[in-house]
Amino acid sequence: MSRVHHKAPSKPDRAKELRNFLGLNGQKAIASKFLSGEIRHNQAISLLSQTSSEGLLWAGEIALENAQLVRSKASILDNLQKAKLMLMRAEAIRLHTNKGRVDHVVARAQLQSLHLPVYGCLALEHSLPSQQVAEKTYPRTLQVGMALAKEYEQTSNDTPEELELRKDMSGTLGEIAVLTLLERFALNIGSDSWYPFLAYFSEDRRNRHGSTIGRGWDISVFTDLEEHQIDQSYRVQVKTILAHHAYSLPMSEGISLVAINPDLKINLSDRRQLSSQIIEECNQELTGESQYSAGLEQRTEKLLKIMDSV
User: Fold this and answer.
1) Residue 281 near residue 295, CB atoms below 8 Å
2) Contact (Cβ atoms closer than 8 angstroms) between residue 192 and residue 171
């Protein structure tokens, strides 16, 4: 009697079996399993990479986070390379789907990609970026913000889908506005001792359903006051307008909550979509229009005061 040989499942088949075993239906469920500790970083990266452009973005962000957790140089480099590939794929697929239009997923993938050298400094050298690295990063951050701001203005709110898209884009613009103010400040005082990062995936999504205290944040500021003694000194949760601030959960100790409008408003003529205005002012200043500098200093002082108050 002949023996029946069963062919080993291919990698895609194994991933499908794993999804079925875990009962995962979509990227949000995968992310939830990861955040609850039911699956580990590498499993989450593998599963999310097979979902959608947003799933690829999340996979890239989890790989960036894992690069800070693993210890060997080879593992760090492997995670940074995974992040690079996932983020590139997320951007390319989303742009293709959107017929070239930038949205929050594209912008975030671009942001994380351009900050890879910064994450590399932290993971590989346990240091903050040099002034040279920071000077290259800041204008590229502004370019991403300017492109998203332009697309936001051209996106209508005629349908529920467009309204939701504008909400997501507005939230990302808020994060970029605060990030640019802080990157600008870091350049002025020395990026190798004080530098902002977008929060890691699990930091940004710490809130659970039914939470009564906000535990997640959007931006971290790391400081290096002694030789390679890196400290996460600030955690900032960003809201775009006061209405979002009012409905926010009270924040956990050590997390500052910034509502861009009105917290960073300095003039009656400031636009309601103040995030875009801040990004535009930073960009104008960078091109040599110094009349914006005083206002940006005022906004930065208001932001730092809020951050220092917690």
Assistant:
1) yes
2) no
Q: Where are the beta strands (DSSP E) in the chain?
A: 194-198, 219-224, 230-241, 255-259
Measured in whole angstroms, how far is the alpha carbon of residue 115 from the centre of its chain?
Answer: 10
What pLDDT is stored for residue 6 in this prediction? 45
Output the CA–CA distances (angstroms, integers) from residue 45 to 20, 63, 65, 70, in the order listed: 16, 7, 11, 15
Q: Are residues 227 and 154 in the same domain?
A: yes
Domain presence at residue 3: no
pLDDT tens per residue, range 183-195: 999 999 999 999 9
Question: What backbone torsions phi and psi does residue 240 show, to the nearest 5 degrees?
Answer: -85, -40
132-188: per-residue pLDDT in tens? Answer: 999 999 999 999 999 999 999 999 888 999 999 999 999 999 999 999 999 999 999
Q: What is the pLDDT of residue 301?
A: 98
Contacts of 192 (CB under 8 A, 6+ apart): 127, 128, 129, 130, 131, 224
Residue 111 near residue 83, CB atoms below 8 Å:
no
CB 234 within 8 A of CB 179: no
Domain that holds residue 53: 15-100
Q: Do 176 and 217 reside in the same domain of the chain?
A: yes
Does residue 310 share a domain with residue 243? yes
